[in-house]
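Possible regression after last week's pipeline update?

I re-ran a chain I had predicted before the update to compare outputs. Posting the input and the new output here so someone can diff against the archived version. Not blocking, just want to make sure nothing changed silently.
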Amino acid sequence: MHQLLHHYRPLILRTLSLSVSLATMSSSLAISVPLTVPHSSKTANSSSFLGFRNGIRSFGAGNLARSRVFMSASVGSQTVVNDALFSDYKPSLAFLFPGQGAQAVGMGKEAQTFPVAADLYKKANDILGFDLLDVCINGPKEKLDSTVISQPAIYVTSLAAVELLRAQDGGQQIIDSVDVTCGLSLGEYTALAFAGAFSFEDGLKLVKLRGEAMQEAADAAKSAMVSVIGLDSDKVQQLCDAANHEVDNDNKVQIANYLCTGNYAVSGGLKGVEAVEAKAKSFKARMTVRLAVAGAFHTSFMEPAVSRLEAALAATQIKTPRIPVISNVDALPHADPDTIRKILARQVTSPVQWETTINTLLSKGLKKSYELGPGKVIAGIVKRINRGADIENVGA
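New output (post-update):
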């Protein structure tokens, strides 16, 4: 035995030396075969949120784990992530999170019976600097409806609903089985937090700043939003075109939320919105409903908010989500943290592609979804898109 070791000693030493060299190299440079995608860039991998303990699940767990090995490259201390990591996702169970407008006085009350859910509101108070739960439960409605309060309130209450579901029999199994998530406008931040792209606290800080920046942008110009009920998107676009013929550039309108056939939100200057309301009947719209929001969200009117958001997003640690999170901007999942930052900054000035998102999920085989948070707005929209869709509400 001693003679064998003596004979192979040079080979063993060379092998050890090579292993150390390769390990050193892999910490500074690893090569991957990239896919052709429009976006790519940097940063880290997945993490868990509020008690997700089982790492990557569902979504072809083995294939996804292997994909992350071959589709990311470590360069120096940074990890380059191929943004197309989730491009071939096959959804079966989705979590959907509501956006601004879903808030209602009394929300959050049920969550107080579950310590983990209740603790989210306590954490929120320290970040926001006011008693969020008190406003959620007691109002007044006008205060809760304000952009700077409603956005954090919906974010926290929606994630509290996740904890309420977890506490139910079989709830953890449902959570572990979720293989895709998305949210309507503000709800995209909730979805990203659920998917581990950033922490609860960091997400809340972003949502707080987002609400403040959007409110300031709305205060800088006279603008509004209106829902047009009973028309398809082509007809609503024609209605917008007709209204735009009658107003100056500062009052132009556009479709801001593609929710579902028969329900599209139009945003723009106040005079343009008033022109839409005046002409809607002549285009055979069933009705219009002025939305109780601060201004023309998801249009260029929100441009002043973008730079503040970009700065905040740049300073926030964002990781590759553990499951696909579908973007409002392009109805696609993104894996690269830098791309996610850019998408979130663009989101406030870009139309929400919710109808395309839901249609895509259903066409890819989605079997069931849960709406988590206040209200039943999401469930109503999903049912309008596909009456046979299986969706369940979990409030808080």
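Follow-up from reviewer: compared with the archived run. The domain at 93-218+300-394 is CATH 3.40.366.10 (Malonyl-Coenzyme A Acyl Carrier Protein; domain 2). Marking as no regression found.
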